[in-house]
Amino acid sequence: MATSVSGIGSISSTGIGSGLDVAGILDRLMAIEQRPLDLLQQQAGTLNTRLSNVGKMQGYFSALRDKANALTAPNLWSGTTATSADATAVKVSTSANATAGSYAVNVTKLAVGQTVTGTALASSAATLGEGALTIELGQWGAGEPAAGFTPKSGSAAVTINIGAGESSLATIRDKINAAGAGVSASIVTDASGARLSLRSTTTGVENAFRISVSETTPDGDEATGLSALGYDASAASSPMLRSMSAANADLTVNGIVLSSASNTLTDVVDGLTLNLLKTTTGDVDVSVATDTASVKTAITDFVGAFNTLSSFIRAQTAYNADSKEAGALQGDQSTLALQNQLRAVLNEASSASSSWSRLSEIGLTMKTDGTLDTNAAKLDNALAKLPELKKLLANDGATSADSGFVRRFKNLADAALGSDGVFESRSASIRANVTRNGKSQDAMEKRLEQTRARLQAQYSALDTKMATLNNLSTYMTQQIAQFNRSSG
After folding, report:
1. At 255, is the pLDDT very low, low, confident or very high (cuts 50, 70, 90)?
2. What DSSP state is assigned to residue 224?
3. Contact 399, 347 (CB under 8 A)
4. Are the CB atoms for 232 and 146 separated by under 8 Å?
5. Burial of 279 (0-12, 13-18, 19+ CB in 10 A)
6. Residues 214 and 129 sit within 8 Å (Cβ to Cβ)
7. Distance between CA 392 and CA 16 in Å, rounded?
8. Gap between the terminal Cα atoms of the chain
9. Structure pTM?
10. Could you give the CA distance from residue 110 to residue 203 in angstroms, rounded to a whole number?
């Protein structure tokens, strides 16, 4: 701001004419006026940190609930594992209804499909003529030639029409593969030429097949043209030759003779799947056992999630006497209440199991820092009594006292994480405080702008007045000096 004194001169900026440090005075005064805003900004930082940490704690609670859900799931406790003494010959797996046991499996024959091969042609582009192929699944009778053909129950014959421009060996192969007739076609080429090979897509004696051919223009020779793709095992001769007969798998399980159209057996033993990979020279031992390893992993994962949550709460509610710094959630009543509830779950004995009543008895002990320590030996011993361990951890009782420990943690987490739970209400409360703080900051900033403008105007006026007086004093001094010289 520029000030001026009429007839004496002009002062270009505040403070120059008066000697006042107006800018410095204003800065120091405004620093004092700014203190309430600084406090509001500090409070906003504290609130945002608290909101962030409540969100983190909510995430740790959610992780704890996930591990509790896994540990209380019924299928975890009914799980089984299967092992085979020779997995290259007999591979095994289990489903939910499998029971522990041991079995001796001896494979004398694998299930196979039928394979037939045609005569060699010059190339895959060689043509065979127009007509129709009819493929029918079924079972051939015994002997050579076979004693008849029995169509497969529930299966219908499939007719594949070969029209103009479709009679090359390669095109016929593609049409067979697209027909869904229960066979797959391929072309095998060697020094003799290209041959069409057909194979059952499904193993077993009932999935053999025969091929009937009708030519649009018969040439009277079944060995030439489209007729060359016919196959009938009951005939004295057949254009296509059988290189593999369809057969069932033959095996024994615990000495019981079995036959299967498939090399994958799912109904021999409840809950047990046998995959036959090759024949054996004797019995292969197969065993089914309770899956305690998965239960142990689930317990370990739960303990890890609990310890992460417990350590976080401890750090956020602690006070460091050396640094004189408090955790962001120190004194937060909601957090302290959750901490007490977690400890209460552990401190209340459970009557669900007749073998144990406390987690410490199965090797899970609370340390002084609030986390759980695992005694591996005790836990392994407890895993040997899986039904009782399930009760101690996962039982869903009518009251807290007869519920399992992990079930209690799950219930606590469900309540805390619900739409009307502590995390939602606490976060909403903090967000409301953040909003109010922001509005207070906005109002304070407006007041500070007004205060600075008022002080600026006041000190500018003072500066102008003092500059005028200083100039007048200088002028009077000059006039007196001049009068004195003229009088002398």
Report:
1. very high
2. S
3. no
4. no
5. middle
6. no
7. 86
8. 44
9. 0.69
10. 9
